[in-house]
Design goal:
The chain is α+β, with helices and mostly antiparallel strands. Among the domains are: 1-219, Vaccinia Virus protein VP39 (Rossmann fold), CATH 3.40.50.150; 221-301, Phosphorylase Kinase, domain 1 (2-Layer Sandwich); 303-445, Orthogonal Bundle (Transferase(Phosphotransferase), domain 1). It contains 21 helices and 19 strands. The protein has helices spanning 3-9, 33-50, 65-72, 84-95, 109-113, 130-137, 139-150, 260-275, 308-313, 320-336, 378-391, 414-422, 431-440, 453-575, 578-582, 584-621, 623-633, 637-649, 660-663, 667-670, 679-697, and strands at residues 55-59, 76-81, 101-106, 123-127, 155-159, 186-193, 202-208, 211-214, 217-220, 223-225, 240-244, 248-254, 286-291, 295-301, 305-307, 340-341, 349-352, 357-359, 365-366. The strands form five sheets. A seven-stranded mixed β-sheet has the order 3-2-1-4-5-7-6, covered by helices on one side. A five-stranded antiparallel β-sheet has the order 10-11-12-14-13, covered by helices on one side. The protein has a three-stranded antiparallel β-sheet with strand order 15-17-18. It is elongated, with a radius of gyration of 57 Å. The protein starts with a helix and ends with a helix.
C-alpha cells in the first residue's frame, strides 16, 4: 500500500475527490468539480485584475481538492483544517508536486482568522465550514468575523448551510445565509449544490468589497450604491445595487422580497431591449444578464457622464432647451416603433461627456403607453419632468411627484409651448408633437401667461395638493422613522431571542448529553448489578456445595476419631495383656540379635572397604594390571558400575558424584510416609511407638 493510499485509508470520511488520484476518489461525499468551475473562473478574473498570481487561503481545506487545483494554476495556497488526518493527506499529495507553492496547517479556523493581516491573502475559500462556527459561537460573532475578513482580502467565496437543514446546527443558522455576508459591497449567489447530509441544496456565494464578478466577467469597483439616485432615499429597501467600474455598469436586484416582481421584470425587460434595440436608437452594449431564485443581474457598457439630477442639484449652467430636445427625440423615436418609457425622470437621464442628454433605465421601456406612477398619463408625467428641468427645482417623489401638470407656472417659452399641448385633443398628444412644437418655439418666448380664472383655479388647486403632498410626505417620513425604530427594536429583540434560543438549545443539548450519559451509566450499573446477582447466586450455590462438603468432612473426621479412639483402646488393651508381658523376652532377644547382626555386618563391610581401597590404589599404580582389570570388568557391567561408584564415594576418582537417590533408585519411595494420617492418628502412632520402646527397654 502506497503512502497516499494509507493516508486515505486513515480518513474518517472521504469528503472530497483526491487530487491527482481518481482511483482513490470513488465514493467521496462530494464531487466538488461543480464548485471548482466557479472557483477557477473567479480566480482567473481576480488574477487578471491583480496582474499576478493570487495568494489563497482555504478554510477547512479537507483533503485539499480546491487548494491543490488552485496551486496547479500558480496560486500560493495556505490550507487549514481542524482534522489532522486531512492535513496529512494534503501534505502527502503536496509532496507529489514539489513545484506547487502550498502549505497545510492543523488548527481552528476562528483562531487562525484572528491572525490574518490586511493584504496577506487575495482569495479566501470558506466552503461548508462556517455553520459549525455559527453553532459554536453564534451568528453575530461569525458575521463580525467575516466582515473583518472582507476588509483584509480581495474576494471571498463561501458555501453556507441553511436553517432548514434537519441537523443539530440548523436552528442556530440565520434564516437568510446572506445575513453573514450582506454588508459586503458586492454579493452574488453563484449557484446551489447538493450535499450528502440532507436533500437541501446549499448556496455558493462570492462576496467582495473591492471587485464585482458575474458570469465570468469582473472588474475592480470604482463606486457602488444601493440607490439609483440621490432622491431614492431607500425606496427599494436595499433590494438593488448599482456598480460602476472602468468599462462596465452593473445592476444586481433581489427578486425575493416585496419588490421582487418589479425588479425581476425590469431587469429582464432591460436585457431584452438592449439585446434587440429599436433601429436608430442608441444604447449601451449588453454584456451579460441572468437570474436565479434570489436575484437578477445585468452588465452593460459604462456610459461616461453624470445624472441630470446631480447637475441640477449643483445648480450648474445647463442648456435646458437642448436637454428637452435630446430627450424628446429619443421618446419620439421609441414612440414611432411602439415603445414607451414609463419613468422619464431627471434621475433617468444622463448627460454624457459631450453634454448630450441620454435616456437610461432601459428596463422602464415597454409597449404600454402609461407611466409607472401618478399621474400615469405619459404626457402629464412629462410636463412634471419639464417643470423640474426648466426651474431647476426637483421635489422628493414621495408619496407623489410634484403636483405640477399645468403649464401656467412655467417660464417662457415653455409655458406657451406646453399650453399648446393643452389646446389639442388628448388623442392627438404625442412626443413627436411636443418635439415639433418645441423646435418651432422661439428661444426668447412670448408674454407672461395672463392670470385668468382658469389659471388661478389650476394654480390654487395645484398649490393645495402640493401642500397636502408635502404634509403626507412629512407624515410618511415620521411613520418610516417610527417603523425603522420599531424594526430596530424588533431586530434587537430577535437577535436577543436568537441568542437566548441558542443558549437554550445548547443547554438543552447539554442536558440531553447528560441524560444520555446517565442513561448509559444506569444501563452499565444495571448490567453490573445483574452480573453481581448472578455471581451471588453462583456463590450461594457454591457455598451450599462447600457447606455440604464440610458436613461430609466433619462426618469423616468423626469416623476417623472414632477409629483412632478404638485403635488406642486396642493398643492399650494389647499393652496390658498377659501375652504382651509373656512375649517380652522374645522381643528383647530379637531386638538384641538384630543389633549384634548389624554390628557384625558393619565391621565386615568396613574391612572389605579398606581392602578394596588398597586394591584399587595398587591397581591404579600399575597400568598393565589396571588395563587387565578393566578388560575383565567390561564383561561384568553391573560389577564395574558398582566399583566405579565405590571409587567415587571413596574419593578415588574425579567424576562428579550423583545423588544417593539416583545411585539407589527406589529408596526414597520405599520409605513409608505418614502424611496421609490425621493428627489424631499421629498421636496414637507416636504413643504406640513410645510404649513399645519403653516396654522394650524396661
Amino acid at each position: 500500500m502506497s503512502t497516499i493510499e494509507s493516508r486515505v485509508a486513515d480518513l474518517p470520511e472521504l469528503y472530497q475527490p483526491i487530487f491527482g488520484h481518481p482511483e482513490l476518489s470513488e465514493g467521496s461525499s462530494r464531487t466538488s468539480h461543480d464548485r471548482l468551475v466557479h472557483i477557477t473562473s473567479i480566480y482567473k478574473v481576480v488574477e487578471k485584475i491583480q496582474e499576478r498570481s493570487l495568494k489563497v487561503l482555504d478554510l477547512g481545506c479537507a483533503q485539499g481538492f480546491f487548494s491543490l487545483n488552485l496551486a496547479a494554476l500558480g496560486a500560493s495556497v495556505h490550507g487549514i483544517d481542524y482534522l489532522e488526518q486531512n492535513v496529512e493527506v494534503c501534505r502527502t499529495l503536496l509532496a507529489e508536486h514539489p513545484e506547487f507553492k502550498a502549505q497545510f496547517t492543523f488548527g481552528k479556523v476562528e483562531e487562525f482568522l484572528e491572525s490574518v493581516e490586511p493584504g496577506q491573502y487575495d482569495l479566501v475559500l470558506g466552503l461548508s465550514v462556517f455553520h459549525h462556527l455559527v453553532y459554536d459561537l453564534g451568528k453575530e460573532r461569525i458575521k463580525a468575523v467575516i466582515e473583518q475578513l472582507l476588509h483584509k482580502i480581495t474576494v471571498f467565496i463561501g458555501e453556507f448551510a441553511l436553517a432548514e437543514e434537519p441537523l443539530y446546527w440548523g436552528p442556530a443558522q440565520p434564516q437568510d445565509p446572506r445575513y453573514l455576508i450582506g454588508n459586503s459591497a458586492f454579493l452574488h449567489e453563484l449557484s446551489r449544490h447538493p450535499t450528502h447530509l440532507a436533500d437541501i441544496q446549499r448556496p455558493l456565494y462570492v462576496a467582495s468589497n473591492q471587485i464585482w464578478y458575474l458570469d465570468g466577467i469582473g472588474q475592480r469597483i470604482l463606486s457602488w450604491t444601493p440607490d439609483s439616485h440621490a432622491l431614492a432615499d431607500g425606496a427599494h429597501q436595499g433590494a438593488r445595487r448599482y456598480y460602476t467600474s472602468d468599462d462596465y455598469f452593473v445592476k444586481v436586484f433581489r427578486i425575493d422580497g416585496m419588490f421582487g416582481p418589479r425588479n425581476q421584470k425590469e431587469l429582464a425587460q432591460e436585457a431584452e431591449f438592449l439585446r434587440h434595440p429599436p433601429a436608430g436608437f442608441d444604447t449601451p452594449r449588453h454584456f451579460t444578464s441572468g437570474g436565479n431564485d434570489a436575484e437578477s443581474w445585468l452588465v452593460t457598457e459604462r456610459i461616461e457622464g453624470e445624472l441630470l439630477l446631480d447637475v441640477i442639484a449643483r445648480a450648474e449652467p445647463l442648456d435646458k432647451r437642448a436637454v428637452l430636445l435630446d430627450v424628446l427625440r429619443q421618446l419620439a423615436a421609441l414612440e414611432q416603433q411602439g415603445f414607451y418609457h414609463d419613468d422619464v425622470r431627471v434621475w433617468n437621464v444622463m448627460l454624457d461627456s459631450g453634454r448630450k442628454a441620454r435616456l437610461i433605465d432601459f428596463g422602464s421601456i415597454g409597449n404600454q403607453p402609461e407611466d409607472c406612477v401618478w399621474p400615469h398619463n405619459l404626457y402629464l408625467s412629462f410636463m412634471i419632468f419639464v417643470k423640474e428641468v426648466v426651474t431647476g427645482v426637483v421635489d422628493k417623489p414621495t408619496p407623489l411627484r410634484e403636483i405640477a401638470i399645468s403649464p401656467f407656472n412655467l417660464p417662457q417659452p415653455y409655458a406657451d409651448w406646453m399650453n399648446g399641448l393643452w389646446t389639442q385633443p388628448v388623442s392627438a398628444w404625442s412626443f413627436q408633437l411636443l418635439l415639433d412644437s418645441l423646435e418651432a418655439a422661439t428661444a426668447g418666448g412670448g408674454e407672461p401667461v395672463q392670470e385668468t380664472s382658469t389659471v388661478l383655479w389650476m394654480s390654487s388647486i395645484e398649490s393645495a395638493l402640493q401642500a397636502i403632498k408635502k404634509h403626507l410626505h412629512h407624515v410618511e417620513s415620521e411613520e418610516i422613522a417610527t417603523r425603522s425604530a420599531i424594526d430596530a427594536r424588533l431586530k434587537a429583540l430577535d437577535e436577543k431571542g436568537d441568542r437566548m434560543a441558542l443558549i437554550y438549545e445548547r443547554h438543552l443539548a447539554e442536558l440531553e448529553r447528560d441524560r444520555s450519559e446517565l442513561t448509559a451509566q444506569l444501563n452499565d450499573y444495571t448490567q453490573a448489578n445483574r452480573t453481581l446477582e448472578e455471581q451471588l447466586r453462583s456463590f450461594q450455590a457454591s457455598s451450599d456445595h462447600w457447606h455440604q462438603r464440610a458436613i461430609e468432612n466433619e462426618a469423616r473426621a468423626a469416623t476417623s476419631e472414632a477409629r483412632a479412639s478404638n485403635s488406642e483402646q486396642r493398643v492399650q488393651a494389647l499393652l496390658s495383656s498377659t501375652s504382651w508381658f509373656m512375649t517380652k523376652p522374645m522381643r528383647v532377644a530379637v531386638v538384641q540379635g538384630s543389633r549384634v547382626t548389624r554390628q557384625l555386618l558393619a565391621a565386615g563391610k568396613a574391612t572389605v572397604r579398606k581392602s578394596l581401597v588398597v586394591a584399587i590404589r595398587k591397581a591404579a599404580a600399575r597400568p598393565e594390571a589396571k588395563r587387565q582389570i578393566v578388560k575383565l570388568l567390561n564383561h561384568y557391567p553391573s560389577l564395574a558400575a558398582r566399583l566405579r561408584q565405590f571409587a567415587r564415594n571413596q574419593g578415588l576418582t574425579v567424576a562428579a558424584s550423583r545423588p544417593a537417590g539416583s545411585a539407589m533408585p527406589g529408596m526414597a519411595q520405599a520409605i513409608p510416609g505418614d502424611d496421609a494420617l490425621s493428627s489424631r492418628a499421629h498421636d496414637v502412632l507416636q504413643k504406640f511407638e513410645k510404649a513399645i520402646k519403653t516396654k522394650d527397654v524396661h
